Amino acid sequence: MERVVVRGLYKRFGKTKVLEGIDLTVGEGTVVAILGPNASGKTTLIKCILGLVVPNRGKIVVMGEDIRSGVEYRRYIGYMPQIAKFPENLTVRELLNLVKDVRDQPSKEEYYIDLFGLHPFLDRPLGVLSGGTRQKVNATLAFMFGSDILILDEPTVGFDPVASTHFKDEVLRLKDEGRTVLFTSHIMGEVEEMADRVVFLLNGKIYFDGTPNEFKVKTGEKTLERAIAKLMKEARVEEGV
């Protein structure tokens, strides 16, 4: 089943073109890395899928539902923003309970509390937690409802090596269960570890869509980081930038 379908997506902010004719289809049981330099359109694409940004043109279908028909499709999505803004006076436990009440769906928060070692922090206010611990709370909120689709924006920023390893292993486990994962990252090592597919954006357009290995073969480079740098240079020459 195709879980996310994007067709002819255009978005401008004033006179600035951000997305220009994006076509993207993502099925179940796959992990897709959405890559590109700053201002390439990655975050805008994610926010369009989430319904947080309204495109000027185009169509987005999630789990068979046109997102213009309402917000019910969001129940299928777990979202992890790059920087989560939590009410600083709430404790971790209070935040988890609040989100559970709002979503009103079965939750596996205990599994993720254990996975990310959050037990010592459950009764501490979010405002006193380190950035890495807040990121673990962020990941728990994204994962704990067993969503069919996970959208993760620079998810491992701030994680220590142990938390990063647990996180990546969990993404791969969920993929094996048939979940769909879209994530952005500037860490090419984790892209190669997790992604089945790379979608590379530049200047609001898709310049490559394929496996990490195909990306390296296309550019003649041995690492994904060098492959991306080469493609960016070629694309900018082509665009006359």
Instruction: Please give the CATH class.
Output: Alpha Beta
| Overall average residue pLDDT | 93
CATH topology: Rossmann fold
Q: Tell me the number of structural domains.
A: 1
Number of strands: 10
State the share of residues found in helices, binned by percent: 25-40%
Largest sheet: 6 strands, mixed
What would you call the shape? globular
Q: What's the architecture in CATH terms? A: 3-Layer(aba) Sandwich
Distance between the termini: 39 Å
- What is the H-and-E element order? EEEHEEEHHHEHEHEEHH
Question: β content, as a range?
Answer: 25-35%
CATH superfamily: P-loop containing nucleotide triphosphate hydrolases
**Strands of the biggest beta sheet: in what spatial order?**
6-7-8-3-9-10
- Low-confidence sequence ranges: none
What structural keywords apply?
241 residues, alpha/beta, Rossmann fold, four-stranded antiparallel sheet, 10 strands
Helices, strands, pairings?
Layout: E1 2-13, E2 16-27, E3 30-35, H1 42-50, E4 57-62, E5 65-66, E6 77-80, H2 92-103, H3 109-115, H4 131-143, E7 149-153, H5 161-176, E8 180-184, H6 188-194, E9 197-202, E10 205-210, H7 212-219, H8 224-239
Parallel strand pairs: 3-8, 3-9, 6-7, 7-8
Antiparallel strand pairs: 1-2, 1-4, 4-5, 9-10
Helix pairs in contact: 7-8
